[in-house]
Design goal:
globular, single chain, 11 helices, 8-stranded parallel barrel
Length: about 270
């Protein structure tokens, strides 16, 4: 097992992130899409000259309410949004686009089957658009406090298998696995689909803080499952933005060393 450690943040946090020691920043896709073209070009120039990579973008959708509710979804608008997002992410070197968006993907009562079909269509559009830009789509299982649809890695992997998209994979997030009661052994069972990992202290809902050796949670089960599949990839601390990214990175180095998780290139094929 070997990981590349990344930090979560917004564009305004980038200057501090790049001085911290983290290997990459996991930024907000919806924020990126909302920029004017002039604003984006400035961001592109700034990030393009940085040693900190911007290869992963979360919050794929800009909505915080169920999108498959009582009104018809505007597919033309969404296709334009997806094209714009993927073009911009590609120009910043993105390789992974995370679909979490618990509220947006929630199924409305009484229209569950229709909403499921619409969600699969949305994934289809996302994958086709992302593939043209060399980007993988990662479906994130979320706990029941966040959504009523796709809670476990197995459910996410089953959907990936049914859609048969070459660039559709899953990720795991410790907080959501704990919230869903998802067995860590499912990381092993779904290893062929796993492409990204999130971590934070999973016990402090709704707060999200960096994990530590003194926070009362035993992270060994999570890491043991990842070690069993010899996971070599990206690991993002998805938590509230720290006051001191450099200090948080040093603490994460100590934390990962304790659990014998080496930092390195973190890439396997």
């Amino acid at each position: 097992m070997e990981v590349r450690l990344g930090a979560f943040g917004r564009l305004k946090d980038f200057p501090q992130m790049e001085r911290s020691g983290f290997a990459y920043g996991e930024l907000d896709a919806a924020e990126l899409s909302e920029l004017s073209e002039e604003e984006f070009q400035r961001v592109k120039e700034r990030l393009g000259n940085s040693p900190l990579r911007t290869e992963i973008f979360g919050r794929a959708l800009p909505w915080d309410q169920p999108i498959f509710g009582g009104v018809d979804f505007d597919w033309e608008e969404f296709c334009r949004f997806a094209e714009k997002s993927c073009r911009r992410m590609k120009e910043l070197g993105a390789r992974k686009w995370i679909l979490g968006n618990g509220k947006a993907r929630s199924l409305p009562e009484g229209r569950e089957q229709y909403a499921r079909e619409q969600f699969c269509r949305l994934l289809d559009v996302m994958c086709d658009t992302a593939e043209k830009n060399g980007i993988a789509v990662l479906l994130e299982p979320l706990g029941p406090r966040y959504t009523n649809f796709i809670h476990t890695i197995g459910q996410a992997a089953e959907l990936c298998q049914s859609l048969r998209k070459d660039n559709l994979f899953v990720m795991c997030d410790l907080r959501h696995m704990v919230d869903s009661g998802d067995d860590f052994r499912n990381i092993i069972r779904c290893r062929d689909y796993l492409r990204h990992v999130h971590i934070d202290n999973p016990l402090l809902y709704p707060r999200r803080i960096y994990p530590s050796l003194s926070d009362g949670y035993d992270y060994s089960g999570y890491f043991q499952a990842l070690k069993e599949i010899d996971y070599r990839g990206t690991l993002t601390v998805e938590a509230e933005v720290p006051e001191d990214f450099a200090g948080s990175f040093r603490e994460m180095e100590e934390f990962l060393a304790y659990y014998q998780v080496p930092l390195g290139t973190g890439e396997k094929g």
